[in-house]
Amino acid sequence: GGIGGLDVQAHQRLAVAFQMADDAFDLAVDGVRHRHPDYTERQAWLAAVRLRLGDDPFRFAYPHEPLLTP
């Protein structure tokens, strides 16, 4: 038995992987903030999202947001 069909060890590895992805994104936001201290928190977050997704997916997901330089 496990959690949702996963054994506990696999569940723990998955949780660690998600945490690492979140930490990496937080570092990307910090990097944008460092390079662009004039950006608001939202602008830094959007620039990091653009960096992660690429331009076309970003435009699709956020059609009314500017393409800020990460």
Structural class: mainly alpha
Mean pLDDT: 93
The level of helicity is 55-70%
- Write the element-wise H/E pattern from the N-terminal end onward: HHH
Q: How far do the termini sit from each other?
A: 44 Å
Shape: elongated
**Largest sheet, described in full?**
none
Poorly predicted segments: none
Radius of gyration: 16 Å
Q: How many strands in all?
A: 0
Query: Helix segment count?
Result: 3
Strand content: under 5%
Describe this entry's structure for a reader.
This protein is mainly alpha-helical. The chain is built from three helices and no strands. The chain has helices at residues 8-35, 41-53, 55-61. Helix 1 crosses helix 2 (41-53) and helix 2 (41-53) packs across helix 3 (55-61). The model has no long low-confidence stretch (mean pLDDT 93).
Short description:
The chain contains three helices and no strands. α1 (8-35) crosses α2 and α2 (41-53) packs across α3 (55-61). The protein has 70 residues and is mainly alpha-helical.
Descriptors for this entry?
70 residues; mainly alpha; 3 helices; elongated
Topology (elements, then pairings):
Elements: H1 8-35, H2 41-53, H3 55-61
Helix pairs in contact: 1-2, 2-3
